[in-house]
Specification:
With 297 residues, this protein is mostly helical. It has helices at residues 3-9, 33-38, 47-55, 58-66, 76-90, 93-108, 132-153, 159-168, 170-175, 187-199, 207-217, 229-239, 242-247, 254-273, 276-279, 282-290; strands spanning 111-113, 126-128. The chain is built from 16 helices and 2 strands. The relative contact order is 0.19.
């Protein structure tokens, strides 16, 4: 199924990006690794794992549970995050600013206190979506999943390319509320931060996270999208750290590992053969037309 058809069948079809101001590269531009990596539709395969990592933090799980329509629409958070991410990545500066302002407006109302203990957090612990530490964790999950999926299914990256991608994404992190004092200074420090979070006490899959995870892992998919289920499940199990796989009850089955191994090589070759409109996000194609004759493809 072509990428756009799968998105529509999942309820993830997004509003189109307007052409924008001609010659305006936005925050990144055509020569950036952010455009090169972020244009790939296949990155969507990492979405469920990123969501699970986010809600493994009890304060994020409480915010999602109490301040969103997740129970009515399991893809609501993924769709909103995806739409804002693509507009900030490929929009001109004004489009990126408006998308970031929309995220900030939503986050402004997401605050409260835990009603029950979860992991190291006792009842009454406050949570606030504007907290830079929580914003950093959400940003980190998206970056981790995007890089892993890109390297497995599109192509490898050198250490210098990963570093460049990380540094280029700093303005993106800032627009999502990550302040400079909490953002790791380089990719190596970022990896250390991720390892510390995964192995540390802050992540603990509580009752709220398990309820949300049931909808993420077994969403009510329409018939056209069901064929992608085994692939998405296998990618999700692969991306989750072992400790969290167990807490979410998603130990990787032999069949899932086999599905992923069998599909990896073929998927790489298939992506290279796809036309741009099927392989890349339409937002990237709009941005490329806006910047034609500028920089390198």
């Amino acid at each position: 199924m072509a990428g756009g058809g799968l998105l529509a069948s999942l309820g993830l079809d997004l509003p189109p990006l307007e052409p924008g101001e001609r010659w305006d590269p936005g925050l990144f531009g055509p020569d950036s690794t952010v455009w090169r990596i972020g244009r790939e539709r296949i990155l969507l395969a990492g979405g469920p794992a990123a969501l699970l990592l986010q809600i493994a933090h009890p304060l994020v799980a409480a915010g999602v549970t109490n301040h969103s329509g997740f129970s009515e629409d399991p893809f609501l958070r993924l769709r909103a995050t995806l739409d804002a991410t693509l507009r900030i990545t490929f929009g001109d500066r004004e489009q990126a600013r408006r998308a970031a302002s929309g995220v900030g407006a939503v986050h402004a109302g997401v605050r409260g206190r835990l009603s029950e203990p979860a992991g190291p957090f006792g009842p009454g612990t406050p949570y606030d979506a504007a907290d830079p530490q929580l914003a950093l964790w959400v940003h980190a999950t998206l970056m981790r999943s995007s890089l892993a999926v890109y390297e497995r299914f599109v192509g490898g990256l050198t250490p210098s390319q990963r570093e460049r991608y990380y540094q280029e994404a700093r303005p993106f992190a800032a627009l999502f509320g990550v302040t400079a004092d909490v953002l790791p200074p380089d990719y190596r420090a970022f990896q250390a931060y991720l390892e510390g979070m995964v192995q540390g006490p802050a992540l603990a899959v509580g009752k709220e996270a398990k309820a949300l995870a049931a909808q993420i892992l077994r969403p009510p998919l329409p018939r056209p999208a069901r064929a992608a289920g085994p692939f998405m499940r296998a990618v999700t199990a692969w991306l989750l750290p072992e400790r969290l796989r167990g807490q979410f009850g998603l130990e990787p089955a032999t069949r899932d590992r086999l599905v992923l191994a069998l599909l990896t090589g073929g998927l790489r070759a298939s992506l290279r053969a796809l036309p741009a409109r099927a392989r890349f996000w339409p937002h990237y194609l709009v941005a490329r037309r806006r910047m034609e004759d500028f920089g390198n493809e």
